[in-house]
Amino acid sequence: MNTLEPLLAKHPFFAELDQPYLELITGCAANMRIKQGEFLFREGGEAKQFFIIREGVVTLEVHVPGAGSVTIQTVEEGDVVGWSWLFPPYRWHFTGRAVTGLRVIALDGKCLREKCEQDHDLGYEFLKRFSHIILDRLQATRLQLLDLYGTH
Amino acid sequence: MLPRLYRVQRARWDTDDTFSLELSPSNGHDIPAFAPGQFNMLYVYGVGEIPISISGDPDRCDLLVHTTRAVGTVSRAMSKLKAGDMLGVRGPFGTAWPVEAIHGKDVVIVAGGIGLAPLRPAMYHIMAQRENYGRVVLLYGARTAGDVLYGKQLQQWRAHFDLDVFVTVDRATDSWRGSVGLVTALIGRAPFDPLNTVALVCGPEMMMRFTTMGLEKRGVSTQNIYVSLERDMKCAIGLCGHCQFGAAFVCKDGPVFPYSQVKVLLTKWEI
Amino acid sequence: MAKMSKREVRTQYLIDRQDFQSLFDVLFNKGFRVVGPTVRNGVVVYDQLKSVTDLPIGYQDDQEKGSYRLQQLGHQRLFSYTLSPHSWKKFLYPPAVRLWQAQRKDGSFELIPEQQEPTPLALIGVRACELNAIAIQDRIFLGGDYLDPIYKAQREKLFIVAVNCGRAGNTCFCASMKTGPKATTGFDLALTEVVEAERHYFVVETGSSAGEDILRVLPHRTATNEEIEAASQVIAQTTASMGRSLDTHDIKNFLYANYDHPHWDAVAARCLACGNCTMVCPTCFCSTVEDVTDLTGDSAERWRKWDSCFTTDFSYIVGGSIRSSAKSRYRQWMTHKLATWKDQFDTSGCVGCGRCITWCPVGIDITEEIASMRAEQKSTADVEAAKENIP
């Protein structure tokens, strides 16, 4: 048994996932340490993975000509970041940078895609969980857009 | 009801559009006791009178502090007052944060923008009687780094070992190295026990609605969530009718309400 | 002074029409300013009266939704009109009143309060619905945690002469609101005007010791049983000819459950948000304050003025008005009047006087709107029930 499995099992994203599926997914997972200031991924790069943040803070940035790098959102401990791996062209839309040192679990996108194609039940469980995260993120983003504290 | 005259001891800008006034009674008496969450009606000579939450320490009897944004005729005129100028004060009015009733509980304070001002007296009170409460968490969201209110105060609080302070901004500027995102995003991670928590929430109404949703999602009951509503007020004593929200007069049945009492009407439009 | 002493059986007295002027004389002697109905600009208004001849003798109003016509019928009745667009609230809760003054002084300013020393006031011709309206405003201005000193000062120097209605106006619905047509409480004297072939008199009830004191010095005698019966007949006939009614059954919960009723849109399409209804309503109490200075800025004043929840900035806070649509403002007015008022003040806010119906320029009728809303509910319920029966 991979030592990562208990780590994954604890995470809310994998809650109530059947044991055999958890094993399958763990097969695509790797523990990683990332130094402060390093990039997890860069805008336009190939989206091969997604990350579960175990410790640390990641900024989601975009490069705006004239303004430089603009932070749109920060993601922190417990968050899941990255879903450009789900759909072609499998390219990152934003840049992810470690604001602090990070401990993450990186999950291999290609590996997971193949397993989901082979086992559609696994695929369904995965997409159920992912849509939930995407929904939360979308709602949070919408709220940010509202500029609630601004002068009207 | 006649306003009482207060002298401005100190006036300063907290952010680009937010300022604080420190007042003391012109007759040298103590300020009347107030409870955290209450407000006064402040009168600028010849201009008008507006409701502003008291943002100072309820244990201090010599200084009355108010923080507000300079966004209307009266508040803009008020923002031009200097030390030595006089102001009319009526109050205190309204219901308070239930800081006495929640002894023994974890306390989560969620503030958005200027919403930190009416919550600061509650923070002062809780920190002065720290042993009466469980875990205390402050979640604060501002528009940008430049809009963070009471920066020094926040740093002082953060330095406490028995207080968790999390600050986030909606939009990051160059120098900001902290969290970026709406304050609601901080709720999921905040260290408190939802079953033994009372939440005090203040900010723009939309922010309060989404915050309460986030708190409910984490298992905090609506009876244990308190919000502070804002409505137009002219008299502050339940007679002019302007501040009505359903059957409640926000000036005397509020501004602090248990969320369970206002939840249904808050989801309806134009009530 | 107008406080009620409860008596089970009241002796009824009689005052002849020819002696009516003495009521004015006695009140003037006692230092009262007398106000009541008088005709001006084709309308009955409430204003200062100098003698019985100032009353709208021979006048009768014909009110319908969005319509008011006053006619001189040539008869001798004093109180044949029903209701004025004015209500008595203009005397107890004036449309514009100064709250205090401020005077600039040595880099500061000082505040000068108003002295509340109103002249004693006698109201002539107060209808049962209006007595209820005064009682409702008593609860608002005197019965809460904060009371209004202006209202209190005048209310303590008030003498009320009520009149039982001799006819029901078309827009009246006091019977269904249980506020009339008979005056039962809240008056110092209550009169019922009786006109017979040969005689014209008033059957009088006293409602307080102040009323008794005044009656004592008026030419009067005890009424006979026939006269009392004649007066009862007048009131009974009014009750029977009531043209409108409002279904008050569980109305508070009904409105609480129907904030999203589609009928609000229908009303909104007609409502101009002109606020007439709030101006003429005898219980509406919303106000605003105005701070004014003179040209030099050396002195300032704060005034209280009538306001209406129909104005666009009534609910304005930074960011905009909470109730920006006319629909939300009409809904606010009606829901307040018939529902939230009960939770606030333990009574309905509506006394069934019908002024809002008469003075609405587009003829919105509160009794019809409630009936429509209830009917639409019922038909939805019927449709749902019918669906269930489809095999």
Q: What features would you describe in this structure?
A:
The complex is a heterotrimer of chains A (152), B (271) and C (391). Chain A contains four helices and eight strands. By secondary structure, chain A is α+β, with helices and mostly antiparallel strands. Chain A has one domain (4-141): Jelly Rolls, CATH 2.60.120. In chain A, strands 1-8-3-6 form a four-stranded antiparallel beta sheet. In chain A, strands 2-7-4-5 form a four-stranded antiparallel beta sheet, with no helix packed on it. The radius of gyration of chain A is 16 Å and the shape is globular. The model of chain A has no long low-confidence stretch (mean pLDDT 88). Chain B has 271 residues and is α/β, with parallel strands linked by helices. Chain B has two domains: 4-93, Elongation Factor Tu (Ef-tu), domain 3 (Beta Barrel); 106-228, Nucleotide-binding domain of ferredoxin-NADP reductase (FNR) module (Rossmann fold). In chain B, β13 (244-245) and β14 (248-249) form a beta hairpin. Chain B is globular and about 50 Å long. Chain C is 34% helix and 24% strand. In chain C, a hairpin with a 5-residue loop joins β13 and β14. The relative contact order of chain C is 0.16. The mean pLDDT of chain C is 94. At the B-C interface, loops of B face β6, β7, β13, β15 and α11 of C.
- Annotated CATH topology of the largest domain in chain B: Rossmann fold
The strands making up the biggest β-sheet of chain B line up spatially as: 10-9-8-7-11-12-15
Proportion of strand residues of chain A: 25-35%
CATH class of chain A: Mainly Beta
Tell me the CATH architecture of chain A: Sandwich
Number of domains of chain B: 2
Number of strands of chain B: 15
How much is the radius of gyration of chain B in Å? Answer: 18 Å
How are the elements arranged and paired?
The complex is a heterotrimer of chains A (about 150), B (about 270) and C (about 400).
Chain A: H1 4-10, H2 19-26, E1 29-34, E2 39-41, E3 49-55, E4 58-64, E5 68-75, E6 80-81, E7 95-98, E8 102-108, H3 109-118, H4 120-145
Antiparallel strand pairs in A: 1-8, 2-7, 3-6, 3-8, 4-5, 4-7
Helix pairs in contact in A: 3-4
Chain B: E1 4-13, E2 18-25, E3 39-44, E4 48-53, E5 64-69, H1 73-79, E6 86-93, E7 106-112, H2 116-128, E8 136-142, H3 151-158, E9 164-169, E10 179-180, E11 197-202, H4 205-217, E12 225-228, E13 244-245, E14 248-249, E15 256-258, H5 259-266
Chain C: E1 12-16, H1 20-29, E2 33-40, E3 43-48, E4 59-64, E5 67-72, H2 89-92, E6 96-105, E7 108-113, E8 121-126, H3 128-142, H4 149-155, E9 158-164, H5 174-177, E10 189-195, E11 200-206, H6 209-216, E12 221-222, H7 225-240, H8 251-256, H9 263-270, H10 276-280, E13 287-293, E14 299-306, E15 316-317, E16 320-321, H11 326-345, H12 355-359, H13 366-389
Parallel strand pairs in C: 2-8, 8-9, 9-10
Antiparallel strand pairs in C: 1-11, 1-12, 2-3, 4-5, 6-7, 6-14, 10-11, 13-14, 15-16
